[in-house]
Amino acid sequence: MKSTYRAAAFGLAGAMALSLTACSSGGSNQGDSASSGGKTTLRVVSLLPGSEQAAIDAFNQQVTEFEAANPNIDIVPEEYEWKATTFAAQLAGGTLPDVFEIPFTDAKTLIANGQLADMDKQFHTLAYADKFNPAILEAGTGEDGKVYAIPAKNVYGIGLHYNRKLFESAGLDPDKPPTTWDQVAEDAKKIADANPGVAGYMQMSQNNTGGWQLTVQTYARGGRVQEIGSDGKATSTLDNPATVEALQWLKKMRWQDNSLGSNYLLDWGTMNEAFAAGQVAMYTSGSDVYTSMVQSNGLDPATYGLAALPLEGDHAGVLTGGTLAAVPANASEAAKDAAIKWIDFFYTAKLVDKDRAVADAKTLVANNQPVGTPVLPMFSKEQYEQNQEWIKDYVNVPLDHMTSYTDSMFDLPLVGEPSRRTQEIYALMDPVVQAVLTDKNADVEKLLTDANTQAQALLDQE
Asked: What average pLDDT does range 381-400 have in this prediction?
């Protein structure tokens, strides 16, 4: 395993947090209400709203398999999509499932606020508990050393997703995706010119995703949006040269090249939808979104390509993140015991246990669901490669369309998301991106200076 992967990708052990007010730790399980007549009812995250029926069928089959092996647990699936703008209210109002998903960036503050259940005892019942990469496990560990949120899935590096069919329509070779940001801009213009109404490239801009993806662009050019001093004090650096360059690049494509289409208010879900529908030819997001687009957006696999993110500058890096599984703070012991069994079955055992890996892959393939989407390992590179060997006969994703990414995925200089006030600062960056996309005279440097002042004010509150 490359040292950059271990040190940079897993430099997530700092205080990664969504700054939420310390609202009451509401949850769906109240006391022992999860248990009735010797049976525990467990509400769990299922799929995104609007998922394809085949994906729902595959999930339901997995539920059936789990309940057969655990007859004292009744699984109740609930559609779920994490959004920064609604999550805090859902958690405070007790409307989340008993097992829900959160980004790495959220856990530290949720733990500090007393909003997540202590899952340490349950976690250590897992036979492979000591195999997790320590830095990934740290993302869900409290200051008391206990595990509150468990690494679940989708440890990703950002990649460049592109539509092979739209590349061909503009006379571009889909097997040779762009490797520099200038090439991205050039290809985007060619695609937009050849396909009126199509965005040759587009970037997310709302529900905190504008800030997330502007951070991606900053890292890729060697900049950083936040620095932590030796004294632990955080300094906002939103107005760094790399961020300015990224916004000027976006501004040129919007107002000179006219290559960004006409919808400038996209977030993670609507961007995936637009891409799958052929309305966007290129965009940046986690390497794992292929699965979601097949399940929820009817993506045609033949049109899909995944490339490595262009990197420029001495300190250029690829933003990385991931997903944790958590339980509300007021969950009963019965619910917590049931939750760890579900997390083991649905999320993690298939990564380290051959029989579970094959059974999971068989179920997914039988329902025409993706198997083999590129993600980064939660345990080790060797364990990941072993897992891929177990399921190689079931892999059905177009890996030959993803080689630009997969050939370099273990060599990427991965960098964790900014660790302090992450989502609040992303929210401050959204209007900056939107202004560049909607105002021809937007003053990039002033916008960033103003946002940086606000971000620093937030950091100074800590």
From this structure: 96
